[in-house]
Amino acid sequence: MSNIIGIGAAPRRKEDFRFLTGRGNYVADVKRADMTFGVFIRSQHGHALIRGIDKTAALAMPGVEAVLTGDDVAADGLGSLPCGWGIHGSDGLPMKEPAFPMLAQGKVRFVGDMVAFVIADTLELARAAAEAVVIDYDVLPAVVGVLEAVRPGAPQLFDDVPNNLCCDWELGDKTAVATAFRKAAHVARLSLVNNRLIGNPMEPRAAIAEYNGGTGHYTLWTTSQFPHVVRFLMSALVLKIPEQKMRVVAPDVGGGFGVKQFHYGEEAVITWAARRVGRPVKWVADRSEGFVSDRHGRDHVTEAELALDENGKFLALKVVTLANMGGYLSTFGPNIPTNLYGPLLGGVYTTPAIYCNVKVVFTNTVPVDAYRGAGRPEATFVVERLVDVAAKEMGIDRVELRRRNIIPKEAYPYQTPVLVEYDSGDPMGCLEGALAAADVAGFAERKTASERDGKFRGLGYSTYVEACGLAPSRFAGRLGARGGLYESATVRVHPTGQVTVLIGTHNHGQGHETTFAQIVSEKLGVAFDNVDIVFGDTDRVQFGMGTYGSRSLVVGGAALSKASDKVVVKGKKIAAHLLEASEQDIQFEAGVFSVAGTDRSKTFQEIAGAAYVPHDYPLEILEPGLEEQAYYDPVNFTYPGGCHIAEVEIDPETGIVTLEKYTAVDDVGTVINPMIVEGQLHGGIVQGVGQALYENAVYDDVSGQLLSGSFMDYTMPRADHLPNMAIKTHSTLCTHTPMGVKGCGEVGTIGSPAAVINSVVDALSHLGVMHVDMPATPNRIWRVIQNAAMPQAAE
Amino acid sequence: MKISFALNGRPRTVDVEPATLVSELLRENLNLTGTHVGCDTSQCGACVVLFNGEAVKSCTLLAPMLDGGTLTTIEGLSGPSGSNALHPMQQAFHENHGLQCGFCTPGMVMTAVASTAKNPAPTEAEVRHGLEGNICRCTGYQNIVASVLAGAAAMNAPAIGE
Lengths: 795, 162
Description:
By secondary structure, chain A is an alpha+beta fold. Chain A has 20 helices and 30 strands.
């Protein structure tokens, strides 16, 4: 068939047309007959006791349906929001896991914590009624920073969580590390902060729920990256609604980046409320509301030490981190700064001994959970910054020090000292490729030119690896996962030979409708235009764990590949019958089943037709129909990575850092659609650049108020902040995924913060600057320059 | 109050509360949900429409201001509704992978169309500056910039047959 568009091609995206013409279907676009509107009343205080809630005035307003509070939740016997991971501390004890109620129960623990839900005929009325609800708070001292939260005498969020310590977690061989440090010729040390971020997908979160009293069925439309998981959690644990009576739809979702991969209280409250009021209920978050309720990311304080021998070989790494969990444990919360952080501290290096201790800490802030990269950007930042510090202190060139320690290509598979075994990779190849692509040889000349203009210029490297394709269930289970992390796909071949794929991952910008169609087009020889991908609806798709952790292609694509193979196997049986040949003699290529060594053949379309019109069909041995399903559980993580090189110019007069050049050479395994991969890298890199240069969630440390609570205060990267990036791939194939794919959704965000900050520090190195915390704002950089200049000024 | 204006090439009269924002009028009253709302501080640009040919954030306009004017939304950019044709700028976004999740896309396209009308042959730097009021979280802007440059070139190319 002429219109097969397979692996490696770059067709334009199938999903574009509806978005380009304003015909997407986002949750906020959904309207239901007799719909009501809901408004959440959120805590204005970082930490307070709720003495009482007076709903009288609000309920007296005509058109107000209900005001629901924590007392109503308790009266209805509903559950709290579950955490999907149960980690254990170094003492072997489980983490402290206080309940995360849907609506506050007597106490609020962060600004934005949900206290009540007001439902009315119109949004205006719901807002007015929310104003009329009187909440009597007894305000308590708040604590927002991890260092402060673990100090004696700090405000305590939970009575049964002493020192606000959720878990004191460790990984690695402490003794081996201590021994190595004693033998070290040099120890490089670094204290750093990994700044708190707010994911801010452009579509604010939203939900609509509807209850059909005639059938007992619920429908929830929600901005989710994993609708089946939302349904499962609500059904099994939170609302206890029979799973078969609940449909969760995540239609077009306007970006996720992790922010939409959690089960939020809003989803449960709205579903419950729809039954209580007997009418559909709609809620759309304002952006300001998103800032104080979307789960935040990062927020670490870290002390790290790297031991080296006299030749600069890494002997051991020791990392101690305090990780902020915010006010409650979110769905993946405690997993992120532990299991997705410690195992990545090996980086691309042969460091033989690593020890990591992470104190997971509650504070009066928005719960912290996964945000694009999730744990791995933090690990990469620690390692790659520390390598630069060591190079500077030992007088070894930064690239040379990396070369001395990088795992050689021949050494793969490579077992690290921190659980994970890298199956394949070529970090040296990525490094060499990036050095050439970034024209590092010409840097000195560019630096001189900058100096002539009174500017500082710097170059920064990040050679990194990540673990993605979440996740091998057995491995994850040992680490504390409470669910499986496989994926499922159904390939439904219609009687015409056209194909619908039902897949459990969720497409919210990643181009799955295109990439997955390419896989089917290649595997079944069906025209690209004749393949549709369906996702995001629990009534249509069998099951799925959703999209996060760069898993969609790696795990979902693998399930799709397996299901497609099953279709071919069945197709061969049908073809053998029709062609009166033995099944072993049937070949399948480019959409044609043929008998080996003959010109006898049947097209894929003919086989599909025979499967559904089984007049001449082996009914004794084969069921009619042509539809196959596969579940795929990976055997290992995948390990994409690469080398990023950032080049910045700094204006010492203003402190403004300008990103001048950015080069990435990444190993993402097999590339299905290079256009989409490049787009994922662009977006990922810019989110990392945002962390490094612009973005910062700032809390007032007395009141617990979020000071960066809008796009006026929280700097998002804009078009004029950025240069054109140069993206290349240098792929080795994953040895255990069906197509050799590794995933590419997060690599950009993981590699880039370290590259950018390393370039900023390099630009300031002549001033003796060894480290700059993120974000490298003009204010911060100007101060660094002024402070560094001060001794000279005194001379 | 009643207001009359041209919407996507057709005359419309609507009865609306004077305090209604145009973004709200479009989405809630007129069911034109292609215009998106991504913030509450007029920062994100997802709601940009063409009002009398100018790119305007529709969350900054009150409905009565439309009276007597001409409004074009993403649904009407390529011609009368029902048409499946793409405007050259929409086509350029498709060809250059200038969108991912699609949420900021209508605002980006409308902004690009208006700026190209004023500056038919922009440089890359001018395009980046022109998009300063539109936030995208997915693309890193690189392919949006490429799309706008290509779209501008296509808008200014002589039509076939001319």
